[in-house]
């Protein structure tokens, strides 16, 4: 197997595993401040869903060549802490951190948020968005033209479906709306073959933008047999949402992120993995970035940031990507890079957080292509 990154891109690693203590860094987020300072977050533990799991933060200030060493920024003495989504509110300039706590496993997650006036050096007291369990976070919110905060979230209990949290007072209070799922009569046959009941949920970890016509549009990860993203739309500022329907981009069962660029175009960072109904060998590979100039009706340009080619492409080299755009137009991206390493003479599974940056013009050097690999 050969792993390559796009020519001209500098790929940096934000984490260094601590043998038998910190092996699994995952679910990163990144923001870019107007002066160029970058702040990234992720959870880190010996393995996923470990009770000692904590959220770490690192930063890269203007003019500095290296990222700071990650330090713990959020934890709980009795519960695992994870899935951070970091965001700079454009109306206030506050730095927000959305995350979950759980006594055990993702199905028992409780979503919380904090904000910072010091770029993450100190945080406010945690606020619960939901008082019960099974509400997950993956991607940051947006602010609509009415000033409403809309945070995408999801429920992971027996099956998956998406929800949205709305705030009309700049994050002081939140209300839940949505419960988006695939209609029962639209559930793909590949899924029904693996299920005793005709569940129509299956969609989670939405990412959201406001379209130019004022509607809200979200793309969602789907259960792995489905093989494609699903979409939903709200025409009343997030109060109600249409049922989930299949979308044109593939999804191998992994998270992704979409933003509106300063140019007005949309960008999505994801895994362009061709996934047939069954027997596929792709997972979170390759890692792609695509751009649309028609609000997601089509995608005109695409580049692969990282690829793994060979006999075994069942690898996770580009998991849970996320991105942010700086004031100078630079697009900053982070993702999870999983691999097999060695510690004290033993083969061990590791996951690190990778970072790179590029311009919209760089992506536009290549027209959109449907195959996995960039030629």
In short:
The chain has helices at residues 189-192, 360-363, and strands spanning 2-5, 12-13, 24-32, 38-45, 54-60, 71-74, 80-88, 95-102, 110-116, 127-128, 142-143, 149-157, 159-167, 175-180, 203-210, 216-222, 228-234, 245-250, 257-260, 266-270, 287-292, 301-309, 319-325, 331-343, 346-358. With 375 residues, it is mostly beta strands.
Whole-number average pLDDT? 93
What does the oligomeric state look like here? single chain
| Largest beta sheet: strand ordering | 1-22-21-20-19
The CATH architecture can be named as 6 Propeller
Strand content: over 45%
CATH-defined fold name = Neuraminidase
The chain-level structural class is mainly beta
Order of helices and strands: EEEEEEEEEEEEEEHEEEEEEEEEEEH
**Helix share, percent:** under 10%
Return the CATH class: Mainly Beta
Q: Strand tally, please?
A: 25
User: Count of DSSP helices?
Assistant: 2
Anisotropy-based shape: globular
Residue windows where pLDDT falls under 50 for at least 5 positions: none
Write down the domain tally. 1
| Cα distance spanning the termini | 17 Å
Cα radius of gyration in angstroms: 19 Å
Largest sheet: 5 strands, antiparallel
